[in-house]
Every structure is written in C-alpha cells, then in structure tokens.
Specification:
alpha/beta; 7-stranded mixed beta sheet; elongated
Length: 357
C-alpha cells in the first residue's frame, strides 16, 4: 500500500511526520512511500535524502494525495487538503476535531477514515502518539513563559529562582498529566515554587512520589483557584480530555484578579483552551494581553524545536504507519479489535463519538 507524507502548511510549522530514517525502514519493509517536495526542509531533510531512503518525491500535494492510500501529516489538514481526500483513503495526523469544526465537516463529507494521533490509546490507557509532543509542549511552555515574564517583554520581571533574601517566582500548573508533569520538571529545575492542580488523587500521589517536597500538590477547589491564581507569576494550562474540547477552568474574572504582568501559557489551546481568555496564537505573534496578563497560546508549540519534535514523533508513529500500510480496507479499523481502533475519529462520514468522550 502507498503512503503519502504531506508538507505542513501551518504558520512556522517546521516538523515533518516521518524523517528519512523511518522512511527507509518502511521502504525496506515493502511500503511504497511518496513525499511532498520540501516536506523535510524545516528540519534539514532534503528531497535527495528522501529519495536515497527509497521514497518518491512529488511536487504537487494534490497529486500526492491522489496516489496515496494513507495520507500522513503532523497537524490537522487545511481546507484544500480536506476537499482532496476520498472515501477509500486513511488520514493519519493530529486532528483535534473539537477545535476545527469546518475541517471536521469537510472530512465527514469526504468520506475519508480519519485517525487522530491524539486519541490512539493502548490497553492500559496510555496515549503513545500524544505523549512525546505533550512532553515537549510542557517543557517549552514554562521555558517560553519565563521569557515573556521578563520586564522588557512586558512581564512582571521576576526571576524564578530568586536570589539570597528574595523569594522565588511562583508557577501554577493546572493539570498533572504528561504536559503538566513535564512543565513541573522544568519549573523545579529553574528553582521556582511550583504548585500543581489535578482532580485525580492517584495522579497527585504519583507526582508526589516523583517530585517529593519540590512541588505543592493541590486538589482544585474554588478557594484553591482564587488563592493560587492571585499569587502566581506564571500559570500553565495543561488540561486534557482526549478528543474533546478542554473545559474552561479559569474564568475571565479569575484572570482579572491575577498580578499585572503575570503570564498564562495555555497548552490546551489546540483543544479550545482551558482558560476563558485564551485564543490561538502563532509563532509569528505568540502573545497578547488581556487584563494586564500576558497570554501565550501557540497551538503548535513543539514546532519551535522541530529537530527534536520530528525525531520523537517519527519514531512514535512509524510502527503504526506500517500497520496502516498493511490494511486491506479502512473498515478493518472499526470492525476488528485493531490497535488503531481507538484513534478512528471519523468513519463513513460520521464523527465516532465513542472515541471522543
């Protein structure tokens, strides 16, 4: 079966879904691979590198889609790409349907079977294709928030570690999943006072075992939100409900009670955001201000470090791509106990709500 790798079109999206080393592995396994011209340039992979790996390079994305049984990319397809997909094809990428109603409608109309990286799960409930990007996004969210907290960037001008006789900066992390855990790791490493909210006592116990007394572990109540938001220098929103819109846990009034020059980084923005004042931004214009609070809401944070991100993503999805390449008919994904069944977001013109709770 032929697979096609599309070039990304999102602003400052430098990643590519599969690097040349994983393409070579797939080709050696008998998979025919097409790659859109210049798809890997953002991470230094040339068309010649892909050709050497055994792929065929195609300059026109419409032609690439037409000859591919499985279409692969990183981020959600744009409107034009959605209109080119056909019922016999499988789309494999980050979909985040809840944040993109127009793309969702067009994908349903196309009849394509759409498999989302972010909802592929294992028998123990892990999300193996979301995890590497969540790790990177969590770490970068703190790193970038600290930058925007500097005075010349409009922030409060607080050093996270403090110095002798001066208190440390405060970071509040809302959501203790993979992204939140990795944000906490960076915050602790910077010497900040880090507090993490999570509704799962089991998860809080896990984090306490990992970080010990380096973190404050809090079950989120209204009183806890009021207290910690008003004292925070940085707030990281890292709430995840796989496939669904993120709940709005921080209201506009809560943001208005934060310190002047504080920073919020909403990692959940690709699912609509968990902060009421959040809206998607890009790497070109990463921040805006609401009620004197800086908002960093870039929807493709990992693209800031595309070399690391591409390697991590490519290594993660490659075994699943090989599985898809061996599928005789898309119906196999939904009628059998298939390892990618949990990832099917759209099939036969309909959103599969059982996968998007």
């Amino acid at each position: 079966m032929a697979i096609g790798i599309l070039k990304e079109t999102k602003v400052k999206e430098y990643r590519v879904a599969l690097d040349d080393s994983q393409v070579a592995r797939l080709v050696s396994a008998g998979v025919q691979v097409f790659v859109e011209s210049d798809a890997g340039l953002g991470v230094g992979i040339t068309d010649d590198n892909y050709i050497d790996a055994g792929a065929t390079v195609i300059g026109d994305p419409e032609e690439l889609i037409s000859v591919s049984k499985v279409v692969i990319k990183v981020k959600e397809p744009n409107i034009k790409e959605c209109k080119l997909l056909q019922p016999h094809q499988i789309l494999f990428c980050y979909l985040h349907l809840a944040a993109f109603p127009e793309q969702t409608r067009l994908l349903c109309e196309s009849g394509v079977t759409a498999v989302g990286f972010e909802t592929v799960s294992t028998s123990d409930g892990q999300l193996p294709l979301l995890k590497p990007m969540s790790q990177i996004a969590g770490r970068l969210a703190v790193q970038n928030a600290v930058h925007f907290l500097q005075k010349h960037e409009g922030g409060r001008g607080v050093l996270m570690s403090g110095v002798g006789g001066v208190e440390r900066g405060r970071i509040l992390i809302i959501g203790g999943g993979t992204a939140g855990e990795n944000a906490a790791s960076i915050g602790v490493g910077l010497g900040a006072e880090v507090t993490i909210f999570d509704r799962s006592l089991e998860r809080l116990d896990y984090l306490a075992d990992k970080f010990g007394s380096n973190l404050n572990y809090v079950y989120p109540t209204t009183k806890a939100y009021d207290e910690h938001l008003s004292n925070a220098d940085i707030v990281i929103g890292s709430v995840l409900i796989p496939g669904a819109s993120a709940p709005k846990l921080v209201s506009r009034n809560m943001v208005g009670n934060m310190k002047v020059g504080a920073v919020v980084a909403d990692i959940a923005i690709d699912q609509g955001g968990c902060i009421e004042t959040s809206r998607p931004t890009s790497h070109d214009e990463p921040t805006y201000i609401v009620d004197n609070v800086i908002h960093y809401c870039v929807a493709n944070i990992p693209s800031a470090v595309p070399l690391t991100s591409t390697k991590a993503l490519s290594n993660s999805i490659s075994p699943y791509v090989q599985i898809l390449a061996e599928i005789a008919n898309p119906i196999d994904l939904v009628t059998k106990n298939h390892p990618l069944k949990s990832g099917v977001n759209i099939y036969n013109g309909e959103v599969r709500l059982d996968n998007l709770q």
